[in-house]
Every structure is written in structure tokens, then in C-alpha cells.
Amino acid sequence: MSNTRFSKVMVVNRGEIALRVIRGIQAVGLTAVAVYSDADTNSLHRKQANEAYRLAGDSATDTYLNMDAILTIAKQAGVHAIHPGYGFLSENATFAQRCADAGLIFIGPSPKVITAMGDKIAAKQAMTQADVPVVPGITLDDAFDSKAVAKDAKAIGYPVLVKAAAGGGGKGMRLVYQPEELEAAIDSSRREAAKAFGDGRVFVEKYIERPRHVEIQVMGDHHGNVVHLFERECSIQRRHQKIVEESPSPALSNELREVMGNAAVAAAKAIGYTNAGTVEFILAPDGSFYFLEVNTRLQVEHPVTELVTGVDLVRWQLLIAQGEALPLTQQQLHQRGHAVECRIYAEDPAHGFLPATGTLHYVQWPQGPNIRVDAGVETGSEVGIHYDPMLTKLIVWGESRAVALQTMEQALQETILLGVTTNVGFLLNLIQHPEFQLGNIHTHFLTEHPIETATHPSNALWSISALALTEPSALGKVRQQSSSNRGDSATPLKGLHHLATDLAAHWRLHA
Ligand code: ADP
Ligand code: ADP
Ligand code: MG
Questions:
Q1: Catalytic residue numbers, as ranges
Q2: Do 369 and 405 have their domain in common?
């Protein structure tokens, strides 16, 4: 691929990742074009972009997944390249191909690589050929013989995990402890996979118990260079979905880090990988690791890698897409200090992490050295039912894990989101958990350690501000309480009277 300079890039996404990518495009002097659904008419990403075009409708299918509408706008707006963010069309090979057919550069790997890695069965086969360790498992044909499968599963050893070949976001996974439950699990996984991905193929894997999820960020250019940017530990998950990520992983020795990094680079080279990708591994308590999948896109948790390496991954994605060579060699890349990310969701941890909706009447982000807020919302934003409930990511850096966790604690304390139930209080309690602090984590951490949910200052503020609105004289009491609290530096309610005053004013304006 020769140099392909471009100047106008369209971001086909919304929320925090659209903002992140738009800023990355603008940072290198290019023009950022946004698309927005009707529900996102007042969104931050629309405001941040240099140009923005409407995608009529609210549902993801009508808007951010609507290839015809997106490609029509791209042509009208005269864009040269498309950045898909994560989710939506980011791992859709058909979309990548249609971009190419329309003369647009898709910022990601080739359609061929996306197709190969989108099929977890094919991906495992490719990795086996590249000598990358994979989880022992069985591939099922359409007309599989349940007796033979039962025999193979027994040979692998229970528990086993049924997974969807086209899987993503933890969908279609079934954990099976007893041989007699296997057939029903395969059936239900197939049904869920067919519904979610239009592809009902499933496979069975040995279930690694108390594992860690450790993934390696890779970057490849069009000149045959591939580097890794070290690991991210993403073991804190609910429903097989990550909520806290960090780098470095507390579980890796320098030797293991190098072995896993080299395995990821070998994997990427074997499939001709270009642009940003993540090779996900599962790490067993005994230190053995197995390939899980390749995510062929920029990952949600990419900022922790940016903070420890100092590399702007979106900038690299843009350079690679323009045909440039990777700016740094493997030897020039270093992991410095420690970074932690918390995903802030509109959801209720006290009720099975059920997504929450509503208006964010008041939003306050933390500030300070080594704190990064990748926000997707602001005061006044509506949180609806149409899209993923992740609102914002909080990422911090420290010279050690302990310092980073301390900063994260403070950052979460200072995060105020009023009007919509969020997991901020839950994250705060999780970060403070003694076992988490020790780095003793695995993918079942949250089932083994129930986390308190209800002590975040937002909750107190919410009741107080509601009181201040209905009964302005109560404001005096709030002020009094807050100044008597002020002597105690540990109180999370510092600055309360300012907030209560702001809120009362804000609410009076909007009531
Ligand atoms: P990550 O490793 O980046 O956390 P996830 O698998 O959790 O990856 O997915 C990242 C984003 O993509 C999430 O917002 C998730 O909802 C979305 N996503 C994952 N799989 C799919 C899918 N098959 N269809 C639509 N969105 C998906
Ligand atoms: P997805 O495409 O949904 O992200 P993955 O294969 O990456 O699917 O798995 C998601 C999560 O499920 C992993 O991070 C891990 O927690 C768990 N998982 C997947 N495969 C296994 C396995 N063989 N043993 C134990 N846990 C697994
Ligand atoms: Mg995964």
C-alpha cells in the first residue's frame, strides 16, 4: 500500500468513543465528520465534530448500523476515510468491504482479516497453525452427533463452556458443569447465537477456572511491521463484560509478559494484521495462557495502554491508514507506571446491573493530575434505551498500582451524576476492596465478593438537592451540615453547599 493521504474522516459511532476519535482526528489537523441519530441530536459528539450529519431514526439498526445511509452521507460529505470506533459496524467485514468498494479507507484491518477473526472457530484454527496456545475444545458440525460430543467433552474434562463462533459481548456463552446438561446448553446457545448474530454455530471449550483475562494490544502497518503495546488485565467482569481494566497486569512477571507479547505479535503476523487490534488471552492460575479471540478494532479500554506507553493509539491508527510506517519499534516502546480504567454505566448494581435511563440533571467530573475523563455525557444529557448504557470512562495513572488506585478513589469520590442510577458507588467500593487492592482478581471476582452499592456521595446529594428544590429553606440546613463536615477531610461531602446551591439554581431554571 502506497501513501494515501486523506484529510476528512467520518466517525461512525456515538458516545464517548466518537468523541475520543473525533478529538484524535482533530489533533493531527484533519477534519472530523460526525453522524448522529435523532436521539443524539444534542449529543457531545455532534457538537465536537467539524461537520455533522443526521441519521434519521433512533434505533441502532436505523442509524449507526445503517450502512446504506452512512455510505450515502460519506459520499455527499466528501469524506476519504471512515473510523468505526468499537461496537456497531467496527467488526463488520461487509461494511469494511463496502467502504473499500466506495473508494473509502476503512480504518481497521482488511475485510479478510475481520472475517477470519470474527469466526472464533476459524480464529482458533489459525492460531493453532501459528503455534499460539488455544483452549482445548471441540468444534460442532451442523449435524453433530451428541454421543460423540459427550465423549469428547468428557475427555476435555468438566466444566466446559459452550460458545458462539460469531460471539461477542459475552452473548451465547453457557457454562456446563454436568454431562447431562450439555445438550440443552448447546441448544440454547445455538438459539441465542442465531438470534444475536444470525449465525448459530457453536463450539465447546474447556472452562478454565478462576482465570484472569489478560489481553495484548497490537499495532501493524502496511509494511509488515507489527508491535505489541503490552498487556491490559480485564478480569473484573460482570456477565463476561469488563468493567475495570488496568495495565500492567498484577499477575505477569517480566518473562511471562514477554512470552505473551511475542505470542500476540506472532498471531498478528500470521494473519497479516494491520491497524489496531487486541489479542485476548485467558491466563490460568498456574501461569499457562490460551488464546481467546482477536478483537479487530480499537478497544473500549485502550486508554490504559495510552497512559502507560504515552502512545496516542488513534493517531497511530490514522498514520497506518495513510500508509505510514509505525512510528516506534518494539525496543522503543516501554510500559511506565500503572493505569486503571473504570467504566461508568447507567445501570443499577443493586438490581442485577439492570440498565437505567433518565435525564442527567447534574454532571461533575473529577479533575487533577493524572486523571483522564473520556466522557460521553454532560449536564442535561438524556440517557435513553436505544444504545449501550456506558456513559463515560474514568482513567487514572500513578507511578505504582497503589498510587493509581488512590487517585482512582479520589476521582470516583468527586464524580457526581445526578438523575440517573449509575455504578459509581459500586466502583468506589470495588476499588477499595482489600482483595482488589492486593491484585487478587480473577473473572469471578464479583460473584465471589459481593460489593456494597449505596455509599456514593451522589446518593446523598440527590436527596438533598431534591429537598432544596421543593423546600428552598432546607438549603440553609445543607450549608450548615456541610460546613460542620468540612473539618473532616475524609468526608465525601466536601463542597456540598456549593453543589446544593448550584443544583437548586439549575433545577429552578429547568423546573
Ligand atoms: P471490549 O473488549 O472492547 O470490552 P466487548 O466485547 O465488551 O469488547 O464489546 C465492546 C463494545 O461492543 C460494547 O459496547 C459491546 O456492547 C459492543 N458489542 C460487542 N459485541 C457486539 C455485537 N455482536 N453486536 C453489537 N455490539 C457488540
Ligand atoms: P466475547 O467475544 O464475548 O468477548 P470471549 O471469548 O472473549 O468472548 O470471552 C469473554 C469472557 O468470557 C472472557 O473474558 C472470560 O471471562 C470468559 N471466558 C471465555 N472463554 C473462557 C474459557 N474457556 N474459560 C473460562 N472463561 C472463559
Ligand atoms: Mg472478548
A1: 297
A2: yes
112 inside domain = no
- 73-82, 369-378, 480-489: least confident range: 480-489
pTM over 0.70: yes
For residues 305 and 416, membership in a common domain is answered with yes
Q: Which atom of ligand 2 is nearest to the CA of 207?
A: 24
- As for how many domains the chain has, the answer is 4
| CB within 8 Å of 445: residues ≥ 6 apart | 235, 236, 435, 436
Domain that holds residue 156: 136-206
Q: Whose CA is nearest to atom 7 of ligand 1?
A: 169
- φ, ψ (nearest 5 deg) of residue 6: -140, 160
Helices 146-156/182-197 angle, 10° precision = 100
Judgement on whether residues 143 and 273 belong to the same structural domain of the protein: no
342 lies in the same domain as 467: no
Q: Is the CB of 242 under 6 A from ligand 1?
A: yes
Task: With CA atoms as reference, report the closest residue to 350 among 250, 451, 275.
Answer: 451
Residue nearest to atom 9 of ligand 1 (CA): 169
CB atoms within 10 A of CB 188: 14
For residue 154, is pLDDT > 50? yes
Residue 194, phi then psi, degrees to nearest 5: -60, -40
Asked if 124 and 134 count as a contact pair (C-beta separation under 8 A), the reply is yes
